[in-house]
Amino acid sequence: MDLFRMLGGGARFDKKRFKEDIEVFQPKAVSTGLNADAEAALATELDFFKNKKPASKKAPAKKNEKKAKSDSDSEDDEDNSGESSGEDQTHEGDESEEDDESGSDDDEEEENEEEEEESIGFADKEQLALFRNHLKIKVYGTDIPNPFRSFEGLGKQYQVEPYLQRNILASGFKKPTPIQMQAIPVILHGRDIMAMAPTGSGKTMAFVLPILHDLKGPEKVGYRAVIISPTRELATQASIYINAKESPNSSGSIFNQIKKLSVGRKFKVCMLTKATAATQGQAPHLRQKYDILISTPLRLVHAIQQEKMELDQYVSHKLLEQGFLEQTDEIFAACSHPSLQKSLFSATLPSGVEALANTFMRSPIRIVIGSKNAATETINQKLIYCGSEEGKLIAIRQQIQGGLKPPVLIFVQSIERAKELFHELIYDGINVDVIHSERTKAQRDKIVEGFRQGKIWVLIATELMARGVDFKGVNLVINYDFPQTVQSYIHRIGRTGRAGRSGEAITYFTNEDQTYLKSIVNVMRESGCEVADWMLEMKKPSKNQKKNLRQRPLGRSSINTMSSYDKKKIAHKRDIIANSKKRKAGGPVNNGESKKKSKVESSKA
Ligand SMILES: Nc1ncnc2c1ncn2[C@@H]1O[C@H](COP(=O)(O)OP(=O)(O)OP(=O)(O)O)[C@@H](O)[C@H]1O
């Protein structure tokens, strides 16, 4: 269909006469499950929206009620971007083709044939619409390929290489997730795509699979696909994929997903680091030829500026964030291939970012799974009022004493506060650690691995860990500090409740945070969580208030319950240990450094 439209460029084909020729180019209809309904197509563990619950159960009805209410009440800016679940679904074929001037019978017949073509794999357009509706797949754009229902169906329809089929099975993936069902055919048709789907819903495979399919096999020609990931942790989780204790599908890092899906083909994948960038700085004929490049935006831009990168083929673009927009321009400027294909995947997409993405995409297809900027429905979200900063520390201690079910991830708003909270909790008899960008890469990798293996029960983290990192078993996320944006909230809590599992997210709020509470309340309501009536009646923050918070976190008094005497004692002990180590190593000893430091600390407190 697409191929004909592209080649036709305004010309009209007599599709009856050239039926056989068309069939040669036409992807084959999915033969499986033609009459099966969407519910059957979805495995229970992937039923993110709990569509499989019996209709008689009360909860979903309540959700719908709440949701209907929210549509009239949704935020009008980037938090919920005026695009509530009430937005109309634009199915393929809804957009009119060239005007029919004659209105002849022939044209009518042709129209019917086009309708048939467009509902490949489905009995008719109505069945297709029902299928999408049921899985909460919304699509916007023109000539939108149909979703596929099963991996076998995908294989037949798009002639997906058997090695990819085998690797999907070996990953333990029985059914595609809704984002995979709709996004994979779109990318395979060569279309630009903007896709939003809940955290933990399988977006990584939705773009990795079509890339591998398109690249066919390794070639020593240079980069043919570039994947940009917001953090190094998401891109690599390098120490994890070699961990034999992990089940085969336990890590969803981009590198790891490529590795698992490409077994049998020796694709060369470069994770851009300082070291690999240095080797790419050699003369072009000496450079290693990789097929796929994975990088964080800043590192890639740096390499481009240093002329260490030649990017001229095919780009798949996982995530684009507001702060990275300038870099994105530079990256696209370096990717000069005429048929460059761009993909953008995220759990959240502020409307400003979407508008910008629209400027560099070619008639993109937009896919939204569920409600835009809502959280995964498998997460039980709670808000806890703590009054003040001291109240938060009391609340977390109570939580620990009441018994935490590890692994638990705690988010705070700054490195300083991460360190402070760590120093508080380390005396509470739990295995706690802290991760932030001041820790070395080796330390970060080790911590992530320890957390996965259950050696670390509670991990205190900054925003560094909020996006994309796939910890399947996280039971609880605590937002110790109220998040600065709705997007941050959704990504942070999305570290739990992944791949259809259930999880819990608790957000502490103080008097100062109350101004911003309504934004989170809206996400909770959109995702079907219970919210107290008084919260629903709260005023939402103004655009300016939100902008200010996005730019700067709220000032908070430091996390600190220890007396200065206790702190001095601990610091003194630390010095004794450090000095004894240094003495053993024959180095200079510290004379009261900690004492001075503790004085500063106590005067601050
Ligand atoms: N079809 C599938 N069946 C079962 N599990 C799947 C399937 N596809 C992906 N997964 C698993 O689901 C988990 C989450 O996938 P992934 O990390 O791609 O989510 P995501 O949507 O990118 O999340 P985030 O927005 O947080 O980055 C991973 O562990 C992955 O292996």
Automatic annotation (TrEMBL):
Residues 184-367 form the Helicase ATP-binding domain. The keyword Transferase does not apply. Residues 47-124, 542-605 are annotated as: Disordered. Residues 153-181 form the DEAD-box RNA helicase Q domain. Its EC number is 3.6.4.13. Transmembrane segments: none annotated. This is RNA helicase. It is an enzyme of class 3 (hydrolase). It catalyses: ATP + H2O = ADP + phosphate + H(+). Coiled coil: none annotated. One of its GO terms (biological process) is maturation of SSU-rRNA. Residues 51-66 have a biased composition (Basic residues). It is found in: Nucleus, Nucleolus. It comes from the Eukaryota. PROSITE patterns: HELICASE_ATP_BIND_1, HELICASE_CTER, Q_MOTIF. GO terms for molecular function: ATP binding; hydrolase activity; RNA binding; RNA helicase activity. Residues 94-119 have a biased composition (Acidic residues). Residues 378-539 form the Helicase C-terminal domain. Keywords: ATP-binding, Helicase, Hydrolase, Nucleotide-binding, Nucleus, RNA-binding. GO terms for cellular component: cytosol; nucleolus. Residues 565-576, 593-605 have a biased composition (Basic and acidic residues). A motif (Q motif) lies at residues 153-181. Belongs to the DEAD box helicase family. DDX52/ROK1 subfamily. InterPro entries: DDX52/Rok1_DEADc (IPR044764), DEAD/DEAH_box_helicase_dom (IPR011545), DEAD_box_RNA_helicase (IPR050079), Helicase_ATP-bd (IPR014001), Helicase_C-like (IPR001650), P-loop_NTPase (IPR027417), RNA_helicase_DEAD_Q_motif (IPR014014).
